[in-house]
Here is the input.
Amino acid sequence: MDFAIPPRVEDFRARLARFVETGVIPVEQDRTNWDDHDNIRLDALEVLRDRARAEGLWCLQLRPETGGQGLSKTGMAVCYEEMNRSIFGPVVFNSAAPDDGNMMVLEQAGTPAQKDRWLAPIVRGDVRSAFVMTEPHPGGGSDPGMMLTTATRKGDKYVIQGRKWFITGAAESQHFILIARTSDDPRRGLSAFLFDRDQPGWRIDRRIPIMGPEEHGGHCELVFEGLEIPAENMLLGEGDGLKLTQMRLGPARLTHCMRWLGLSKRCVEIAQTYAAERFAFGQRLSNRESIQMMLGDLAMQIEVGRLLVMKAAWELDRGGYARKEVSMAKVHVANLLHKAADVAIQINGARGYSRDTVLEWIYRYARQARLVDGADAVHMMVLDRTLAKEGRAFWHWPVAE
Here is the structure.
């Protein structure tokens, strides 16, 4: 297997690394550039976004005809990891969730007219977007078959009734992708729709307070009370909502992992620097075997995560679904990120627990990683079912043709 990356991808990686080092991290380190929800202030963000556009580092994940650079999933793995050396990196390059996943699925599933109306403004950075699927109990979460929000056909429109929650970015989004029930069919009962913030018949009930830092627009609870969506704003066809969801969430889970690897490496970087500088009981921390064991283990686990992510990306690039590969990467890297932040805080002591570094930010953020886009237990169930179905073939190597 050849793990060498193409020169073009390396060029993007190197330029991203310089940009993050010289542009993003200095902004991150100045707390006056942070908003009230521990994200980058929008005016500071726009300065960096203008520079990213000018340097050709904007929307690398999209096709050239859409406004991107056409990176493959393996190329994205390399570049997203580099972007997220800073906690603010991905949003600077328009590669942060949820816009990232929304743009990729609209690029894949939208009609030309839908791309012009709904996708292009997100690509330009003129608007933000949200993916509206998760519902309060007893509605749909990890199991979309439990979805209760309905879309009822009335002439050339669909009328939406229901409630959604933990919708990332909703408070600052203009464009929304909504998943709602159009029939009771277990496989084709869901459909996907596009709607605009300014349409009547829906509202944000509340912005839900969370433990960690928030994406721009937070995590919101939405109420639909007769929102009318024209039939032309349906993505794919009626009953294709589950298909659309699978198209979006598989790659989106993997891009989370790509970014989390960058944050995990940043934790190690901060821990290494402090251990090399700090003396205790007459010895540098970095010379203590206990510290070496902790950092060595993290280095190994990060590399394991990179291999899992790269294999899943490779499988997607060759046209596969990569379901088990993405699930394995998601569980491993989500837990790795939490461990990396925890170990780095332990090595830094009170400094790590303070806000003198970004470790406490990463630690609070990391706990959600084991929940978003499928909790650990859900992905373990997927892996068990695949193992039961495939048996020893679960571990087969694809054979070159």
Q: What stands out?
A: Residues 122 and 242 are 23 Å apart (CA to CA). The mean pLDDT is 97. The first helix runs from residue 7 to 29.
